[in-house]
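Good day; I would like, with your permission, to put a structural problem before you. What I wish to show you is a protein chain and, alongside it, a tokenised description of its three-dimensional fold. Thank you for your consideration; the sequence and its tokens are set out here:
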Amino acid sequence: MNYLRIDPVVTGARHGPPIFRWSAEETRRSSRRDLKQFFRDAEQFGIRSGLSVSVPVGFRDRMVFTLASGRHAVCADEEPDAVAAAVAAAFVHSRLAAATRDAAPAAHIRLSPREAECLRWCADGLSMPDIAQVLGIGYRSVRFYLDEATHKLGAANSRQDATIAVRLGLI
């Protein structure tokens, strides 16, 4: 449907201010049929208005963070701070990028139940002798399980692999 050419968020991000509001109401005065059709299609998904933040990324690219609404217009008591909005958009973007980057490796890592248990205790700050005592196994067994987990996670040590395992949602 060539929406990239007519989407007001895309065109606004390319040519407009760093933070901007948009709505289907603005197009009612327009004679452009393609834009009216665009908003009719968007309305089927409950999208009528929004607030977008456009942040330059690199030389020619832009990152756009949009909060869309089913309301006819976005209402705000005051103008949003463009710098704060750009920082918030960059933060959300980096967190989402990290989440998708972390999800792929986590799918291929298989910790044994005992490795995960030892890592959980390690993440809670217990030493290897303490973990051995809590689990009722030998110190060497704890060391073996943590070494195996460290190898599987590609970490430098047990503390780092516990941090990685928590971040990946493995423990």
